[in-house]
Write a structure and sequence with these properties.
The protein is an alpha/beta fold. The chain contains 12 helices and 16 strands. It is globular.
Length: 384
């Protein structure tokens, strides 16, 4: 299990078996740079499905476990040089916290799909488990792994646009425009179930991505918000369309819009940030292009792999200019950064506990504001 002169990081997966979407994405991302080897898994709450999933992935049958507890116990019983080193959590949201806490307390690092948990209280419990275990915890807020998102962040941070005044982010999908959740679609079913998805539907699923991206690139924390949560599809139990006005530190203002009932839209994540002298525009569906617009000179088109990119952006690129990089590569950038930390490098380059607490604070503030009479709700500082 060696690659590039070092041992591959051995990982196990909880969730992500037959019929799952995000598990395969995590596996592709972890494999892309040759840094990881999948050695075990508890892929489903159905023991037979978990066994079949492990077999399809070529695993040792003895390491396709029926439950997470069995996987943790089984792996701990193995010699240190053979057992898994981290757990990748790709379950529905309600299992994120119990799985993360159990894995951390058993001595394993954790890379979890977002959101961190169902609520702030569960997120704080995970943070406590990270603290007492001394293990690493990462979250796949995927879009922070795109090279030109990093380029945008660098240009804002170094002051290219002057003081930031406006932050606008939207995430527009249309796949839940009909009652898929009542028609047997597994992905729609759990995402609209409060017991498994948590407090927010569209809010928790893609609104958290939009919020994280806005703060990550602008470098500004949202201090107050005014929210509107709507459910358009009859009998749906969670929101499918959300909007918010944002007041950010330093006096900047923002707008966040996320919808899963924008019929015909695919995966329309777009971020625009404007300062005194100009602004930037990035879209996930054209991820290798960053547009810069100025008050006093022509617009610029910055391309992935092109000239003038920051060193931290260049480090995220894998192909020459003109060769598309996208979703899997962005995921892989997070896994690569996490792998460096597992091997003893700096624990940066990937979202972690602070990002998880922050986004869950955002979800709770949005819901509190949408059902209350107050115009503005204040966000606690970084999950405090």
């Amino acid at each position: 299990m060696e690659t590039g002169g070092h041992q591959r990081i051995r990982y196990g997966m909880v969730g992500g078996g037959e019929g799952a979407f995000i598990g395969a994405v995590h596996r592709m991302a972890a494999a892309l740079d040759g840094d990881y080897a999948l050695v075990c898994g508890a892929f489903s709450s159905d023991a037979e499905r978990s066994r079949r999933s492990g077999a399809a992935l070529g695993l040792d049958p003895a390491r396709s476990y029926p439950t997470l507890d069995a996987m943790l116990a089984g792996e701990r019983a193995l010699p240190e040089g053979e057992r898994m080193q981290l757990v990748s959590i790709v379950t529905p949201n309600h299992l994120h916290a119990p799985a993360a806490i159990a894995a951390l307390d058993a001595g394993f690092h954790v890379m979890s799909d977002k959101p961190m948990a169902l609520n702030v209280a569960e997120s704080r419990a995970i943070a406590a488990a990270v603290e007492r275990s001394g293990r690493l915890y990462g979250l796949t807020f995927t879009y922070s792994g795109y090279p030109l998102v990093e380029e945008a962040r660098v240009r804002v941070a170094r002051g290219d646009f002057g003081t930031i005044r406006l932050v606008q982010v939207e995430y527009s999908q249309g796949w839940l425009s009909g009652p898929l959740d009542r028609e047997g679609n597994k992905q729609a079913e759990w995402r609209t179930d409060p017991a498994r998805a948590g407090l927010g539907g569209c809010l928790g699923d893609i609104g958290t991505h939009a919020f994280h991206l806005a703060e990550h690139v602008s470098g500004l924390a949202v201090e107050e918000l005014s929210a509107d949560l709507t459910t358009h599809v009859p009998d749906r139990r969670l929101d499918d369309d959300v909007a918010a006005l944002l007041r950010l530190e330093g006096g900047a203002r923002g707008v966040l819009k996320a919808s899963q009932v924008a019929a015909g839209d695919e995966n329309g994540l777009r971020l625009r940030i404007h300062g005194e002298h100009g602004g930037l525009d990035w879209s996930q569906m054209e991820p290798n292009t960053l547009t810069l617009r100025w008050l006093d000179r022509p617009a610029e088109i910055v391309r992935a792999g092109g000239p003038g990119l920051a060193p931290s952006t260049q480090a995220m690129l894998r192909t020459p200019a003109g060769h598309p990089e996208g979703y899997i590569e962005a995921f892989a950038n997070l896994y690569r950064s996490f792998g460096r930390a597992v091997r003893g490098g700096a624990p940066d380059g990937f979202p972690g506990v602070g990002d998880g607490l922050r986004t869950m604070t955002f979800v709770e503030a949005m819901i509190e504001n949408s059902v209350g009479a107050e115009k503005w709700t204040r966000l606690a500082k970084w999950g405090a």
